[in-house]
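Risk register update: the risk of archive-format incompatibility is retired. Evidence:
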Amino acid sequence: MISLQKFSAGWQHFFFRDAPPHVMAIFRLAFGSFLLLYWGLKWPHVPMIFSEQGIVMPLKISSERAAT
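Archived output:
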């Protein structure tokens, strides 16, 4: 079984080692661009999903059918 000291040393090495910031900067730019594109493509569908005139939840449908 791994000792607590080995685990702590591995943790410190993984999260706090010196590394060039270029890779992380490129990743952040790519991820931010992806999110802007993703939500930009979803924007026209927001009223359909999040309004009362849009998609109806199954619970509401079943309660309306039970009342009739």
